[in-house]
Amino acid sequence: MSDDLSFFFLLMSNGLLIGLMYSLIALGFVLVYKATDAINFAQGEFVMIAGFVAAGALMVWGAPLWLAVTLALASLVAFGFVLERVMLRRLIGRPVIAVVMATIGLASILRGVGPFTIFSGTKPLPLPIRDEPFMLGPIFIPPIQLLGAGVSLAFLAGFGWFFLKSRKGIAMRAVADNQQVAMAMGIDVERYFGVAWAMTGVVSALGGILWGNLLGVDVNLALVGFKVFPVVILGGLDSIPGAIVGGLIVGVVENIAAGYVDPYVGGGTKDFAPYVLMILALMIRPYGIFGKRIIERV
Amino acid sequence: MEPSRKRSCERVPRGRATPHPTGPPRARRVDKSVIQRECGVLKTTYEADMGLYPLPIARWTVAAVAVLFFAVIPLTLHEYYLSVANLVWIAVIGALGLNILVGYTGQVSIGHGAFMSVGAYTAANLANRLGSPWPVNLLAGGLMAALIGAIVGIPSLRIKGLYLAIATLAGQLIIEWTINHVTFISGGVQASIEVARPRLGSMVLDSQRDMYYFLLFFVVLAIVGTMNLMRSRVGRAFIAIRDHDIAAEIIGINIFRYKLLAFAISSFYAGMTGVLYTYFLGIANYEQFQIGVSIDYLAMIIIGGLGSVLGSIFGAIFVTLLPIVIRYTMEAFGGVFFAPQTVLNLIPNLRLMMFGALIIFFLIVEPEGLNRLWRNIRSYFRVWPFAY
Question: Does B173 sit within 8 Å of A226, measured CB to CB?
Answer without folding.
Answer: yes
